Amino acid sequence: MKRIFVFILISTIFYLNIFSQNIKNQPIESERDDTSIIVPPDYERAVEEMNNDWLINRMITQKCNRDAATPVFYDDSVYIRRLQQLPYRIEMPYNSVVRSFIDRYAKNIRQVEYMVGLGESYYFPIFETALAKYDLPLELKYLPIIESALNSRALSRAGAGGLWQFMVATGRTYGLEVNSLVDERCDPVKSSDAAARYLRDLYNIYNDWQLVIAAYNCGPGNVARAIRNAGGKTNYWEIYPYLPRETRGYVPIFIAANYIMNFYQKHNMCPATPPFVQVTDTINITKRIHFEQIATVLNVPIEELRFLNPQYRQDIIPGNIKQYSLVLPMNLVSSFSVNLDSIIAFRADELTAKQIVIEPSGAASSQYGGGVIYYKVRNGDVLGKIAKKYGVTTNQIKKWNGMKKDSIYVGQRLKIYR
């Protein structure tokens, strides 16, 4: 009994310290007798958004051996045998609730084909790398299937965001930057590392992966409350009636997602192929750059840049503040480096310029003389010559324009305060 009390106490403290992940399910007494199966509403919402996504509508289903895209179902004994064949650390028990979710996936052929295609070609290797780093079961890579339907910019009703659906406070606790321009909850690599650490911490509390998965959905506080109301029992299926209704379906749908991701071919499904280059590379950015500048100069769809870099909320990489990363298709990396000056200069005043000093109409002259001009660099210009012409120093020009070196190029627009 003492062990159970300590267990609940640790769970509660953990819940308070990180403000709980996805805290949106508050248990209601009358729900305990409600045995209805609830599909997590945020999963439904993510699937609906996926259907309207730019990338999804351009994916091409691969050819495979099937007569037609018609749903296929099997007897319970087949599902049981296949689940037991999976080389997993997490137990995958079968029951009528799990079956209902498997049948649901089997009916939604189009959605499953897209998620399989996106996962196998891009996301699953990222998830597996993070999980393996912390020695966690690799089958947890399917959690984002039910959290976000692999929509990196998914946002729940409660404000949870990204593939792994982190709340803002929890994301920041695990080192993810969230502000008006950058939301690393949407960064596939960084959010996956944070999710792996969060799952590891939950396992250190429960030592049971099914309870970990439930806590990931409704928060450790609700799981601790369900354990207490169940008389100290710590088996997921025994505390099932005491969990929030939405969480009751969470472990079953996780089991169903693991099933369908491994046996989709048995259900007449073929992976869909993304229309972008699958091999990518990461570039460090130290300038303020807008996606439209990159898209126009490199002739790449801006939607592709958004897919590969979903953490930039306004299409702006604020590299002038600190170093940020940019993911590009491998075949564009060299072109980006060669054309960097042209990219930065393209519509810079419109897309990336910031009003550093501005005087209201009729106000007295500022310390810079009350005005600012934009000088366009010509052939033969050097920074010292321009500074002398306007009675300022080269260091001032460099500071006003975020420059580290004296080098300038023809066509560059320089801000000069007079």
Over all CA atoms, what is the radius of gyration?
Answer: 26 Å
Number of helices: 20
Beta-strand content: 5-15%
Helix content: 40-55%
The quaternary organization reads as single chain
Secondary-structure content class: mainly alpha
Distance between the first and last residues' Cα: 77 Å
Number of separate strands: 8
- CATH architecture verdict of the largest domain: Orthogonal Bundle
Name the average pLDDT: 84
Count of folded domains: 3
The name of the CATH topology of the largest domain is Lysozyme
Biggest sheet, spatial arrangement of strands: 1-2
Based on Cα principal axes, name the global outline.
elongated
Largest sheet: 2 strands, antiparallel
Low-confidence stretches: 1-20, 22-35, 362-368
What's the CATH class of the largest domain, please? Answer: Mainly Alpha
> What sequence of helices (H) and strands (E) makes up the elements?
HHEHHHHHHHHHHHEEEHHEEHHHEHHE
Structure notes:
- By secondary structure, the chain is mainly alpha-helical.
- The protein has helices at residues 2-17, 41-51, 76-85, 96-107, 109-133, 143-148, 168-173, 188-206, 209-218, 220-229, 236-239, 245-248, 250-263, 291-298, 302-308, 330-338, 340-345, 348-351, 383-390, 394-400; strands at residues 60-61, 272-273, 280-285, 288-290, 316-318, 324-329, 372-376, 413-417.
- The protein has 3 domains: 2-273, Orthogonal Bundle (Lysozyme), CATH 1.10.530; 280-350, no CATH class; 372-417, Roll (Membrane-bound Lytic Murein Transglycosylase D, Chain A).
- The strands form 4 sheets. A two-stranded antiparallel sheet has the order 1-2.
- The longest helix has 25 residues, at 109-133.
